[in-house]
Known about the structure:
- The chain has helices spanning 3-11, 36-40, and strands at 69-85, 89-90, 98-99, 105-107, 113-123, 128-135, 140-143, 156-171, 176-195, 205-225, 229-236, 239-250, 261-272, 275-283, 288-297, 304-307, 313-316, 322-332, 337-346, 364-376, 379-390, 393-395, 399-401, 409-412, 415-432.
- By secondary structure, it is mainly beta.
- The protein has a single domain (3-432), classed as Porin (Beta Barrel).
- A 14-stranded antiparallel β-barrel has the order 1-5-6-8-9-10-11-14-15-18-19-20-21-25.
- The longest helix has 9 residues, at 3-11.
Amino acid sequence: MSPRIKLSLLAAAPLWLVASSGVAHAQAFYLQEQSARAAGRAFSGEVADTGPQSLWWNPAAIAEMDSAEASIAISAILPRGKVVDDGTVIVRPGQPPAPIGGQSVSKNPINNGFLPSGAVAMPLNERVSIGLAVTSPYSFTTNYDSDSWARYSADKTRLRTIDIQPSIGVAVTDWLRVGAALNVEYTDAELGNALPNLSAALPDGKQVLSGDGWDFGWTAGVQMHNDWATVGISYKSAIEHTLKGSLEVSGLVGPLAGQNRTLDGVKAKFKTPAQIIVGGRFRTTDALTLNVQGIRYTWADFDAIRLGSPINSAIPENYRNTWSLAGGFDYAATPDLTLRAGVQRTLTPTRDGERDARVPDSNRWNFGAGGSYNISPSFTIDAGANYVAFKDETIDRITAAYAGTPVQTPVVTDGRLEDAYALIFTLGGRVRF
Length: 433
C-alpha cells in the first residue's frame, strides 16, 4: 500500500482518534459534566467554589479544608437530533456527480450514555490539602446506520478517556489559596466508516481505525476571597496526545482490492485545548450567592492530526479558539436545602466549510437547575438537570477517498444539523469524614 493511498483512506475519517460524531455538551468533543453541583447552576462559578467536586476546574478549591471529603456523580446524557442530507453528491472516476444515496435523514446518531466522575480530598494541616479527581472529559459512542448518507465520513465511533488528576491546594494567606495538579489521561478510540467502491452497484468497503495511549498535562489555579466574595482563576494545559493503533481495510473490489489489509503501528499526534478559566461567587445575602464563569478554549491547538510512520503526513482540522460564559445562583432555602439554576452560552470551534457529519457541532445554550439536600451533617445529595439547545448548522466539509490518485472519489457534502438538543440528568453525593 503506497503512503498516498494510506493517507487517502485515512482522510475519509480524519477524526478517528478524538471524534465526537455529533454534538457534545460543552463544545466540539469536550464533555463538562464532572459535578452534579456544577450541573445544577449550568457550570457557573466552579473555579471559585471549594471542595473536591470543584477539583476539575481549580486545584486551589481544596485548600483550607477542615475535614476529608469525597464526592461522586453520574450523568445520564440523552442527545437528540437529525443529520440531514440536502444534496450531497459523490463523483466516481469517469462518472458524472451522483446523489450519495442511502437514508437521507439520520436520527439520533449519538447513543445515550452515562458519564461517571469522582473526587476525594483530605487536609494535611490547616492550610494544605491533597486530592484526587477521576473524570472522563472526552467519552461517547456514535452509531450511524450503514446506509446513512453520512457513511463515508462517519459510521461507528467509540471514544473513552480517563483523566486522573492528583492535586495539592495551599492556603498561602488568609485571603489567597493556590493549587496545582497533574493530569494523567488515557485515551482509547475505535472508529469505522464506509469506503466507496468504483461502481455504485457494488457494496461499500469499510475501514476500522483504533488506537490508545497515555499522555500528560497540568492544571494550576488561585482563589482570592473575603467574607462575601471569591474570585478564582485557573489554567488547564493543552495535552498533546500520541495514540498507537491499527487500520483495517476490507470489502474493496476490482482495482481497489489490493488495498484490503491491516496496517499495524499507526501513530497519530493531536492536541486537545488548554482552558483559561475565570469566575467568581458573590454572596449578596445570607441565603443568595451569585455565580459567574468564563472559559477561553485554545481549540486552535487542534489544527491537525499528524500521522507518523509509516504514513508521515497530516490531516488538517483548523478549529478556532472559542469561549463559554455562564451565570447562575445558589439559594439556601433552608439550612439543609440549597436550590440552584443557571444558564451557559458556548460557541463552537468548528468552522463553516469544514464541518462534517462526524462533528456536526454548533453554538448552544445550556439551561440548568438543581439543588442539594443535607441528609445528615456528613452526607449531602446533589442533583442537576440540563437542557442544551443547539443551533441548526451546515455540514459542508468536502472530502475525497483515494485523494491524489487516478481513482480519486470526491464527496461534496451538503447537509445540515437540525432540531438538536440534549437532556442531561446528574445525580451525586458528598460525604465528609
